[in-house]
Design goal:
264 residues, alpha/beta, 9 strands, binds S-adenosylmethionine
Length: 264
């Protein structure tokens, strides 16, 4: 899955798309408000910064801001976008799987927003979590989002595509057909059994390979090195207290807030 995704994130149309995004997603806004008082004392690492959508909101509020991306084209877009701003922010090309250019215990807050962690293999995802644990201080906040396999499973039935608007229904059915075409090896049984799956979904016209995971599995994946895990469906400013909440079966992206474990 490595080269397909890296090539897509280097493509000019994709870079231009991310470089014009402005708004925080509801769950990100909730986090910003929650950390607002602490941000002036925080060193922040923004992984997979893309075209700088989150940089413009967080960089002015933190003590130090570093945005990284493995796409040099995305980093160049950030440098161009923020060239006239006064507050200090730095951008660098770096792959989250190997952050050797960053020191141990350096950051208080690490963000990997908009599902950026979902574009590597399962083993590489675990490497990323290790690297985040290494470069973050003990107690460092880690906030990221990931695709929700439970919602995908619920979404992929033809009954779900039918609505009052015939044009929308037609579009939805075409998309479902294309999904099946691009993911011929995935059937309902495989979907129901999997804890995580890599699929070609409709984002950027099926150009990406994307990791989807069930929330309970994501929590398990975090449990070795991270604590205090909280879950925010991406469209919500309220955390969910119960994995059976309706949003968990509906929202295709889930935000996770957690902290690097403190070792005594
Ligand atoms: C969906 S885009 C989100 C961009 C930006 N964070 C935003 O919210 O608008 C995902 C970003 O993650 C970056 N990315 C994916 N895998 C990465 C990796 N292993 N290391 C660093 N960046 C990565 C991509 O290049 C892309 O810019």
């Amino acid at each position: 899955m490595g080269t397909r995704n890296a090539t897509t994130y280097a493509a000019a149309d994709i870079v231009n798309y991310y470089a014009q995004l402005n708004r925080l997603q509801p769950a990100e806004s909730a986090l910003l408000e929650r950390l607002r008082d602490q941000l002036p004392r925080m060193k922040m690492l923004d992984i997979g910064v893309g075209g700088g959508r989150t940089a413009q909101h967080f960089a002015p509020l933190v003590e130090q801001y570093v945005g990284i991306d493995y796409s040099s084209e995305m980093v160049a877009a950030c440098q161009q976008r923020f060239r006239k701003l006064n507050h200090p922010m730095s951008f660098a090309v770096a792959d989250a799987r190997d952050l050797s250019q960053l020191d141990n215990n350096s950051f208080d807050f690490i963000l990997f927003s908009y599902n950026g962690i979902d574009y590597v293999s399962h083993d590489d995802r675990l490497k990323i979590l290790q690297e985040i644990k290494r470069v973050g201080k003990q107690g460092c906040y880690f906030f990221f989002s990931s695709h929700n396999l439970q919602a995908l499973e619920n979404e992929l039935t033809w009954q779900k595509q039918i609505g009052a608007n015939p044009l929308k229904t037609y579009e939805n059915l075409v998309m479902l057909g294309l999904f099946r075409l691009f993911n011929r090896s995935i059937n309902r049984q495989i979907l129901a059994k999997a804890n995580y799956l890599i699929v070609r979904d409709e984002s950027h016209n099926f150009r990406l390979e994307t990791y989807y995971i069930r929330a309970e599995q994501q929590i398990r994946q975090l449990s070795k090195d991270f604590s205090h895990v909280e879950i925010y469906p991406w469209q919500s400013t309220e955390k969910v207290l119960d994995l059976d909440a309706a949003a968990m079966g509906r929202d295709l992206w889930i935000y996770y807030l957690c902290r690097i474990k403190t070792v005594n």
